[in-house]
Design goal:
The protein is of the alpha/beta class. The chain is 35% helix and 19% strand. The strands form two sheets. The protein has a nine-stranded mixed beta sheet. The longest helix is centred in the C-terminal third of the chain and has 20 residues, at 377-396. It is globular and about 60 Å long.
Length: 437
């Protein structure tokens, strides 16, 4: 996606030191803060890391550029996408970026198109794969990459249903056994400002956390009008954002950033249940597939704390992307407006800034070169499930437990992946009628 959350009040630490807090160790493992340090590592190891991109939309193109920026000894050597035009546009865009153009070595024979393009990229001799297709495909592609012994950058979210999350957790466990790195596209965890803020909360600045509120209020995004020559499957794939089987709904595809931030604040404790409401108030036509345009979910924790999570994509309203935290001793605001803690006195983050989208790739490449793997798999899978849990609650109108979501048998996959295959049915969920599966 092009509309990935921007960096929010970030800090750039010394370019030659590790971050040495317990938060960093828990979140990113052996994380190196500096680009210059990564350069030193790369020069010392003397090796080129060959990168393959799977999913050549705006988000994938951005991830490829950020990966090459993060490591000057990385080279992009293969591209794969369902569509030729999208692959070509991505390649042309990347070749125009002068800072990385000399490390784009993607001849026609390493440009792969179709549903099986991911297999060909993985088999093309790459060391690292960047997974940036629509979320439905992430479990399939991650499994294939890990089984082939590749290091992975996995864009968020990593699944759209319970079976997909379980597959991702299994693949991440396999990656641990093989000493392979998996870095998540939940980039706020690589923001230095957010790390400092969350560390202070973990150190007791607010006392016990009792309530959280996560807002993701924004306007609508792109729509691609149907063409006569498109099959139903191509229409779905071109407009993947609007079909639950491909995107998970927008509370999964986008709001997962804020939900993961809340999970992080809660020390990666996840809620025991969710209850909510949602619907289609503005995006009601057939061009908008079967997703909702607003969700409101109350997540309940075993401790009694509650997270109120709200998201909507409608024109003309106030935009706000933030998390508010209420503790026994004060409050915190984590937002695009800044990072604040108020507990007797007011603290605000004023440190240096880093580009967390590049930093996450620096962490990936440094872990590979140092032989000290990073594995973000647990939180990237469980935060995705948290978003899926919220969707299950809003779609059905029922209180849904974490165990129900984790063990759900609702598999949103099509019968097979081919342009002449009918995509999954795109009925619009009706609360009180749609069942928990």
């Amino acid at each position: 996606m092009n509309n990935k959350i921007d960096s929010m009040g970030l800090r750039e630490l010394s370019r030659r030191q590790f971050l040495k807090t317990s938060t960093v160790a828990a979140v990113a493992g052996p994380f190196v803060a500096g680009h210059a340090f990564a350069q030193d590592r790369a020069a010392a190891s003397g090796g080129t890391l060959r990168v393959g991109l799977i999913g050549c939309g705006g988000r994938g193109t951005g991830a490829a550029a950020q990966a090459l920026t993060a490591d000057p000894h990385a080279k992009l050597v293969a591209l794969g996408d369902a569509f030729q035009d999208r692959l070509q546009n991505s390649l042309e865009t990347l070749r125009k970026q002068k800072d990385i153009a000399d490390r784009i070595d993607v001849p026609a024979e390493r440009c792969f198109v179709g549903f099986d393009a991911y297999q060909q990229v993985i088999a093309s001799g790459v060391d690292v794969v960047l997974l940036a297709t629509p979320p439905h495909f992430r479990p399939i592609h991650l499994k294939a990459a890990i089984e082939a012994g590749k290091h992975v950058f996995a864009e968020k979210p990593v699944a759209v249903d319970g079976p997909g999350v379980r597959s991702v957790l299994a693949s991440c466990e396999e990656a641990r056994k093989r000493n392979l790195s998996i870095v998540s596209g939940l980039a706020l965890r690589y923001s230095f400002g957010h790390r400092e803020t969350v560390k202070r909360i973990h150190d007791g600045a607010l006392g016990e956390v009792r309530a959280l509120q996560a807002n993701d209020f924004r306007g609508p995004i792109w729509v691609k009008p149907r063409r006569l020559e498109w099959t139903d499957m191509e229409y779905h794939m071109r407009n993947w954002y609007y079909f639950t089987w491909l995107s998970g709904d927008f509370n999964v595809e986008q709001h997962v950033h804020m939900l993961d931030l809340c999970a992080w604040i809660m020390k990666d404790e996840y809620p025991v249940s969710a209850l909510g409401l949602g619907g289609r108030q503005v995006r009601t036509g057939p061009d908008f597939g079967n997703i909702y345009d607003h969700h409101a979910v109350i997540y309940e924790y075993a401790s009694g704390a509650k997270l109120h999570a709200y998201c909507r994509q409608q024109s003309g309203g106030v935009n706000d992307i933030s998390v508010e935290v209420t503790g026994a001793n004060g409050t915190a605001t984590v937002s695009q407006r800044g990072l604040f803690i108020t507990a007797g006195t007011k603290w605000s983050y004023g440190g240096e800034k880093n580009n967390n989208f590049v930093t996450e790739h620096e962490a990936l490449f440094t872990s590979i070169r140092s032989g000290k793997p990073i594995n973000n798999g647990d939180y990237m899978a469980k935060s995705t499930l948290m978003a899926v849990l919220g969707r299950m609650a809003t779609y059905t109108g029922q209180r849904v437990s974490w165990e129900q979501a984790m063990n759900s048998q609702e598999d949103l996959s099509p019968a097979r992946y081919a342009w002449d295959t009918a995509p999954p049915k795109s009925e619009i969920a009706v609360p009180g009628v749609t069942k928990v599966i």
